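3-deoxy-D-manno-octulosonate 8-phosphate phosphatase KdsC
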Amino acid sequence: MAHPSLAPELDDALRGRAAGIQLLALDVDGVLTDGTVYYGADGETLKAFNIMDGLGLRLLERAGIRTAIISARQSAPLQRRADDLGIGFTYFGQHDKPAAWAALLERTGLTSAQAAFAGDDLIDLGVLHRAGLAFAVANAHPAVRAAAHYVTGRSGGDGAVREMAELLLAAHGALDGVIADYASG
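Tokens:
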């Protein structure tokens, strides 16, 4: 039985591309967050993360799809969130994202065709052009949306990563089982 989900109906080309993905790598600011940076009274950086996105990443890991972060920024909240979610590969402070992408592929033994990347701004274009499946969030820069194979209906920090996760799970034939597991308690 098909369950309601955030996953879109997939055309054959997108389904085929997504079915081969074994890793989802994400930019953080503007993808996993809404891009807003808060500063505390002592100058510490604070960020807000969407719980739905976090569960989506955990579901991917449970289904055998690995997760990674490639971010130009480096901060304690980013590392804490990555640790909380069990994200397997983290590349912080990476202004040369294509180089970080190449290092990630070498480390995992995957090809670009087996890896997806999600971005929102111009710094992400170099990786989006290399990824087997390129995601852009709804509020991404127009050039990023144009480079993507799929643009989410949801904005960064507002469930866009969960939408990507459910799309990948659907393409792998795992989404209905995941939802059924939760529905049965």
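DSSP finds eight helices and eight strands in the chain.
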